[in-house]
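Board notes (copied after class):
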Amino acid sequence: MSAAPADTASSPVLAAAARAREAAAELAPLPRTARDAALLAVADALEARSAEIVTANAADLDRARAAGTPDGMIDRLTLTPQRIAAIAADVRHIVTLPDPVGEVVRGSTLPNGLELRQVRVPLGVVGIIYEGRPNVTVDAAALCLKSGNAALLRGSSSAYASNTALVAVLRDAVVSAGLPADAVQLVPGESRDSVHELMRARGLVDVLIPRGGASLIQAVVRDSTVPVIETGTGNCHVYVDAAADLDMAVDILVDSKAQRPSVCNAAETVLVHADIADRFLPRALAALTAAGVTVHGDEAWQKAGASAGTEVVPATDADWETEYLSYDIAAAVVPDLDAAVAHIRRWTSAHTEAIVTRDTAAARRFVSRMDSAAVMVNASTRFTDGGRFGFGAEIGISTQKLHARGPMGLTELTSTTYVVTGDGHTVE
């Protein structure tokens, strides 16, 4: 990594990053017991100071309502004593998770007698740029602390008062447990300039993780000089194969689309093998309609909709590439599995794809030809989640191919160091 920026005195953002770097150096050698004690102190403090947090949150809510923010976004922004208690419970759960720091990934004794170990270590300073929900402030900080990293948090301006209050609670709690306050910091400022400075703090910040919509993620990937772990949008697909159990296929399709349509692992496109289209499309249309889903379909789906008295919106190329995050789904009939694979590889965001089939050869062929972070066989796309994968928690879902891919738990917040132990060994 290049040398640290020199003008920290004139930039509050770079000064915060420099403090975070010092804190990260203090955190790295601490034992698990110290980090877990800090997290338990955080959980207790959140509950003890919930009234203070709710008061700050009310100011954000007032501003949001005055700006005409939709009710759904208002709900995502809202903190109540009950929600704060749930956040505190999540922090306590993180305490119970295995500690990745110090894990020996591999080791051996070389022929010359040198002992070689590859050991997990914290990344260092993790910057997180995110939108909307203030609970992310605590989740991200807790995951960073558990994995020995310092957290630089840049939430949205819509939650600035809430995030300020939450970070104040977090900092007091970690100090009470003997950790440096600057292990958790809110990036100073509410303007886009502060985001830009954070993205250019190469040498002070080790990695950036953007969480939010496509425009935010792409802006960070495009403009950052700090290494970025790209959390991706979810243009996820369900392919119903010729050998599918139709009852299972309907259940998986509806769950993938309608169980919670506003999240990145919800299905946005369904593809159906032509051999079963006559039997499957009427059932799928009925089930999707009952779930409140609007189908944007090709000619085959439109014809099936006309026969069933169900409106199907004609699909265009824009539908194939859209992450709806709503009760909408694109739909097409394909001649075979290879055509389904070709369609997915053209339009996917490389998040999650699913196949429904009883043909194990077809399943293997589908899996081997996918290039996405997760591939489901006879299971809903909604399972792509750190909690559902058994990781306990996640900081996001990565769609990139370097270092971390898929749900990012504690392990993905670490790097490795090679420790070589000799007994006076020299090369010559």
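Comment from the instructor: The CA atoms of residues 4 and 204 lie 6 Å apart. The first strand starts at residue 104 and ends at 109.
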